[in-house]
Amino acid sequence: MTSILLALVIGAAFGAVLDRVGASNPTIINKMLNLTDLSLAKAILLAIGTGSVLMFGGQMLGLVDVGHMSVKTAYVGVFIGGLLLGAGWAIAGYCPGTGVVAAASGRKDALFFIAGGLLGAAAYMVTYPSWKASGLLDKIAGGKVTLGTIPGAKYEGLTALPGDILGIVLGLAFIAVAFALPERLVGQPAQAQPAE
Predict the structure, then answer these.
(1) Same domain, 47 and 124
(2) What keywords is this UniProt entry annotated with (predicted)?
């Protein structure tokens, strides 16, 4: 019961942060994806980079148990699914997590997004045998692999590089990009109009 309460508290806090940075607002998502306002992209890069540095640094210090790390199996269908998720995110202005946050904050369009996602998941479940038979769900690159090798993990690394160091370096790179990225890549800032 304690773990469920902790999950609810952490989920609510995460949702509040997502809402605060604008990740549950389709207009802000659209501006990010068309490169006219990158403040949300900067927040996402900073969060991923900080999380990576803390997680891999914690693993090196023995504060984070590697056994809790979950690596998803690599197969062609994952890459196709990622493309579909990205296209859906651009069209709807939501990804699954931000859709739930938007619904919780009172956006009615998010309820339709969630219903569509549930229908899509149901369609996938019904057609799963066909997807399995197609070969799109066959493992590639050994299945569950990581970029670097992490001591004590049950996953193989694609390279012999130490995974913890690689994770910290990539996290620092994400943080650097977050700070170096301009506010926009396309368009000009709105000009203030003089009062008449």
Answers:
(1) no
(2) Membrane, Transmembrane, Transmembrane helix
